[in-house]
Amino acid sequence: MPNFIQRVMHPERYHGHGKQPPFFEGWYFKLIDATEQHKYAVIPGIFLSHDRAKHHAFIQVLDGQTGASAYFSFPPEAFRAAQEDFDVRIGDNHFRADGIRLRLEGTELALKGDLRFSGGTGWPVTWRSPGIMGWYGWMTFMECYHGVVSFDHVLDGTLTLNERPMDFSGGRGYLEKDWGQSFPSAWVWMQTNHFATPGTSFVASIAVIPFMGRSFPGSIIGLWHEQKLYRFAQYTNARTEKLLVTDAQVEWVVRDSKYRLEMLATRAGGGLLHSPSRTEMHKRVMETLQSTIQVRLSEVGGRELFHDTGRNAGLEVQGDISTLRG
Q1: What is the domain count for the chain?
Q2: CB of 267 within 8 A of CB of 245?
Q3: Can you give the residue range of the structural domain that contains 93?
Q4: pTM, two decimal places
């Protein structure tokens, strides 16, 4: 059984060994082919409720091109996870940091095939800052934990959708995960790794964080560019200057002592995904893979370091957004 330190220092691995409900864990695989015509999010995971009848493993699929989504439910015993590696199996489906095997057969959607991943780099893990959560990763009472397994990687292989082959060779992927007791009550999440410079990746989220009897709007942002990570979070003393959410866009500006980051995401149509609460998996989250995100990074009072617009962007806006403004 992995001990506490091993779990914290390996956010990519399954954290549910020996956990009591409520508990969930899920990995988010984003898959975009080289033509950018095939866009999928595949989300395997496990959900444990106080009501044992609601225990189940799952695999969600979102077609980012059409907005169609499917939820495949499995008995909890169909979920198997290695203890000292990120290696997850749900039925005949297999998920690792270096690839996936899908054998999904439903009434409206059949998705099968094998993809391999190469060249991925995750959020750096150190004793002082074990991943994207920073020192919060050492806290044992957080409602929800987050990890970035790969900012950007190259895809190779083919998937077949309802007997129609789709070649993903030369495409790009992204991989993150969440685990804990429940998703936050409100959040904004955005991600893209389709900039003019291959290998550049951006992910940002702000959410209501319960912490020691109170709550606060917590943000974690990473811009991976030219093998350097620019990070903005509570634990880096970054603060939000502006957060404006309309039906058409999300405008967000943050800064710290060195840098200022401006983000402008366009909202677009998508599909519904399930998200975990302490009691069940709710079908309530609208996610799109059709957004664009304009990102501008500059030195405070100085020169511009990065300015580009990412395509095929994932975007979620959920809950009472006013609570995110502090």
Answers
A1: 1
A2: no
A3: 4-325
A4: 0.97
